[in-house]
Amino acid sequence: MTVTLVGYRGCGKSSVAPLLAERLGYECADSDAEIERQANCSIAQIFAAEQESGFRRRETSVLRTLLQRANLVLAAGGGAILAEENRQLMHAAGPVIWLTAPAQVLAARIAADAASQTLRPSLTGQSVTEEVAEVLNARRPQYEAAATHQVDTADSTPAEVVETIVRLVGASRDLPNHVTGSESL
Questions:
Q1: pLDDT at 46
Q2: 171 has pLDDT over 60
Q3: Is 177 among the domain residues?
Q4: Tell me, what's the pLDDT at 123?
Q5: CB atoms within 10 A of CB 53
Q6: How many C-beta atoms surround the C-beta of residue 33 within 10 A?
Q7: pLDDT band at residue 174, thresholds of 50, 70 and 90?
Q8: pLDDT at 65 > cutoff 70
Q9: Which residue among 44, 89, 108, 140 is least crowded, i.e. fewest CB within 10 A of its CB?
């Protein structure tokens, strides 16, 4: 089984995925990190050289490969749900967990993350707050179509989100309980 985490940038996928993988005894992968590794450059550089369409082709290729693996927690890129093929691949591999938070919470998290600002391209050229609200609203139907379960991360620690996901996917039986910590997303 693969558990795929989806959601807008800043929702906590990168914080939650390694903890969930540890809790389940699974491997962990991040599709954006794998794309960057294969391309040997940042996502912003890929967008500049190949536009969004080139990046999305790379994303689908990486997802095809990663989602064939068993016992994996996958942090998918924020726009991975845009392609119907990607949504189908995710569903075929196992539960898809949509990590959510209000747009203003996501914008604040993104603004506080210097790496996010330099490594991820702006999709609209607007302020972070305006872009998050607009893009999140536009993507909402695809997130809903992709999600097996939805988990609000706004007021939860990564460890709390992990325990919620474990309960939702029914994987809490006979699993070690060694996810601890109270750091916030």
A1: 95
A2: no
A3: no
A4: 59
A5: 9
A6: 14
A7: very low
A8: yes
A9: 140
Domain enclosing residue 63, as ranges: 2-169
How do 149-152 and 2-6 pair as beta strands? unpaired
185, 12 Cβ separation under 8 angstroms: yes
Domain annotation covers residue 175:
no
**Secondary element (H or E) of residue 4:** strand 2-6
Q: Which residue in 52, 58, 5, 17 sits closest to 36, CA to CA? A: 58
Cα–Cα nearest to 23, from 184, 165, 179:
179
CATH of the domain at 53: 3.40.50.300
Check pLDDT > 90 for residue 55: yes
Helix axes 43-66, 31-39, angle to 10 degrees: 120
Helix (H, G, I), strand (E, B) or coil at 11: coil
**Reported pTM:** 0.87
What b-and-e string marks burial along 62-72, b requiring 16 or more CB atoms within 10 Å of the CB? bbeebbeeeeb
